[in-house]
């Protein structure tokens, strides 16, 4: 009997040891086939023309052996935590197989050809931090409760798809989210109210949709915001006070909307802001002098609004400014001489205004690449001479448009010094005299328009030296003689 009892004790010990071992393995390596099954089911729903997922084998015990392309696992738990299939040329629909990947932290299916809608549970992973479905052909409406379990979510991008309907209101409950990109879709309605209170938010891009409504008060809650783009929507009303409290803002783009009213004064507090884009709205009034306090500005685009009166002299304090676009407004008088201090300016567009006076000498600064001053015909404005280029060597200038003004005088031979020039438009002015032979020195020039002036003489034989010419417009002048046969050397010429 004692021997039998001892045997029972040994068997019990062996059983518990075996059970404990299995339980331990299960705890470390629980049901890995869930990941394999989920990925294989996902793969079955899509087309993989380049065979990117050929390493996914349903006979494998798990997906964490290192051979499954695009799959990353937690080395401790041996569970799939990242699925990164960016740019794999995959097509088809996102099936329910991914819902088995319960430990997923990052899901990126960006830049493929996936179609159809998405499941209401696609973002309901407890540990999900990043979801990126951008650059596909996904469509349909997003479920309103899509982000109801988003406590861990840090970044979400559904950009460049064809989603429609309203943005999910649950997006406003993602208190930890840092980046939201829903750009280039067909979302409509207003921005969910909760989004304007996401204090962790750094980047938000809702551009290129059909969003409407107003930007509410209380945006000063976005203390960590670095970049905001609402461009190309139908957002209306005034720009509210509060953005000035978002002191970390570096980029603000509200272009192509229906915004109206004046610029809020607290924008001057954005000392780090390098991009301010307000083009294509109905903003009005004067551009305030405090604009010169935004010392970090590199791009200032106020084009196609209803701003009026004189361009403020304080713009000359913006020494980091590289691009200034004031076109399509009602600015009067001349550009301030203080702008000669904008030593980094490379692109200037003040076309389609009501400016008058002589062209300032600083406009041919050494670093300027684009100068557009077209259509500035002030009522009763005097004809002014085209600025002499005799002592100017602007090697960087690529685009020069002085069309539809009241410039007079001659085109001097100094124009041949603009060696980088690609586009020259002096049409619809009162220029006289001959076309200078020095145009032949503009080897990169592809378009030249001198139409609608009072030019005389003949077309110079040397013009064929501008061998890159594609368009040459000389109509409505007083030119005589024949078109020189040398023009045949301009092999790309399509318009004459």
The poorly predicted ranges are: 1-32
The fold-level CATH name of the domain at 383-496 is Leucine-rich repeat, LRR (right-handed beta-alpha superhelix)
CATH homologous superfamily placement of the domain at 383-496 = Ribonuclease Inhibitor
Number of helices: 2
- Main beta sheet strand tally, sense and closure: 18 strands, mixed
Name of the CATH first level of the domain at 383-496: Alpha Beta
What is the 3D form? Answer: globular
Radius of gyration: 32 Å
Mean pLDDT: 88
Question: What is the SS-derived class?
Answer: mainly beta
Amino-to-carboxy terminus distance = 117 Å
* CATH architectural type of the domain at 383-496: Alpha-Beta Horseshoe
Helix content: under 10%
List the defining traits of the structure above.
496 residues, mainly beta, Leucine-rich repeat, LRR (right-handed beta-alpha superhelix), 18-stranded mixed β-sheet, 8% helix
Report what the structure shows.
- With 496 residues, this protein is mostly beta strands.
- Among the domains are: 82 residues, Leucine-rich repeat, LRR (right-handed beta-alpha superhelix), CATH 3.80.10.10; 114 residues, Ribonuclease Inhibitor (Leucine-rich repeat, LRR (right-handed beta-alpha superhelix)).
- It is built from 2 helices and 36 strands.
- It has an 18-stranded mixed beta sheet, with no helix packed on it. It has a 13-stranded mixed beta sheet with strand order 1-4-6-8-10-12-14-16-18-20-22-24-26. A 5-stranded parallel beta sheet has the order 28-30-32-34-36, with no helix packed on it.
- A hairpin with a 4-residue loop joins β2 and β3.
- It is globular.
- It starts with a helix and ends in a 16-residue tail after the last strand.
- The relative contact order is 0.04.
- Keywords: Leucine-rich repeat, Membrane, Repeat, Signal, Transmembrane, Transmembrane helix.
- Pfam families: LRR_1, LRR_14, LRR_4, LRR_8, LRRNT_2.
- It comes from Stylosanthes scabra.
- InterPro entries: Leu-rich_rpt, Leu-rich_rpt_4, Leu-rich_rpt_typical-subtyp, LRR-RLK, LRR_dom_sf, LRR_N_plant-typ, LRR_R13L4/SHOC2-like.
């Amino acid at each position: 009997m004692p021997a039998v009892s001892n045997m029972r004790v040994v068997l019990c010990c062996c059983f518990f040891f075996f059970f404990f071992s299995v339980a331990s393995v299960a705890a470390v390596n629980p049901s890995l086939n869930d990941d394999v099954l989920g990925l294989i089911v996902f793969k079955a729903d899509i087309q993989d023309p380049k065979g990117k997922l050929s390493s996914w084998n349903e006979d494998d015990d798990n997906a964490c052996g290192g051979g499954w392309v695009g799959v990353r696992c937690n080395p401790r738990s041996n569970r799939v935590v990242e699925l990164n299939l960016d740019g794999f040329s995959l097509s088809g629909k996102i099936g329910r197989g991914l819902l088995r990947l319960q430990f997923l932290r990052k899901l990126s299916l960006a830049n493929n050809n996936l179609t159809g809608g998405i499941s209401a549970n696609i973002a309901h992973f407890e540990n999900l931090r990043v979801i990126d479905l951008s650059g596909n052909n996904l469509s349909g409406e997003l479920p309103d409760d899509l982000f109801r379990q988003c406590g861990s979510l840090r970044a979400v991008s559904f950009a460049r798809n064809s989603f429609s309907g309203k943005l999910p209101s649950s997006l406003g409950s993602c208190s930890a989210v840092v980046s939201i990109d829903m750009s280039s879709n067909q979302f409509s309605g207003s921005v969910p109210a909760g989004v304007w209170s996401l204090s962790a938010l750094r980047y938000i891009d809702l551009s290129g949709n059909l969003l409407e409504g107003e930007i509410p008060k209380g945006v000063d809650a976005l203390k960590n915001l670095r970049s905001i783009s609402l461009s190309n929507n139908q957002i209306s009303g005034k720009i509210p006070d509060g953005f000035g409290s978002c002191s970390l803002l570096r980029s603000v783009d509200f272009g192509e909307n229906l915004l109206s009213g004046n610029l809020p004064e607290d924008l001057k507090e954005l000392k780090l802001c390098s991009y301010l884009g307000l083009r294509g709205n109905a903003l009005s009034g004067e551009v305030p002098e405090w604009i010169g306090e935004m010392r970090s500005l590199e791009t200032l685009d106020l084009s196609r609004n209803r701003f009026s009166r004189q361009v403020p002299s304080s713009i000359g304090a913006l020494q980091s400014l590289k691009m200034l676009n004031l076109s399509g407004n009602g600015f009067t008088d001349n550009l301030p001489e203080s702008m000669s201090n904008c030593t980094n300016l490379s692109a200037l567009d003040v076309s389609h205004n009501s400016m008058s006076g002589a062209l300032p000498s600083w406009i041919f600064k050494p670093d300027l690449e684009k100068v557009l001053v077209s259509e500035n015909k002030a009522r009763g404005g005097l004809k002014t001479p085209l600025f002499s280029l005799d002592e100017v060597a602007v090697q960087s200038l690529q685009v020069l448009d002085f069309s539809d003004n009241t410039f007079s005088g001659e085109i001097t031979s100094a124009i041949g010094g603009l060696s980088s020039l690609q586009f020259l438009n002096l049409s619809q002015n009162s220029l006289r005299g001959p076309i200078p032979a020095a145009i032949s020195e503009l080897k990169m020039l592809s378009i030249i328009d001198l139409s609608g002036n009072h030019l005389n003489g003949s077309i110079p034989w040397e013009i064929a030296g501008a061998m890159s010419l594609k368009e040459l417009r000389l109509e409505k002048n007083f030119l005589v003689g024949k078109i020189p046969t040398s023009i045949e050397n301009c092999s790309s010429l399509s318009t004459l």
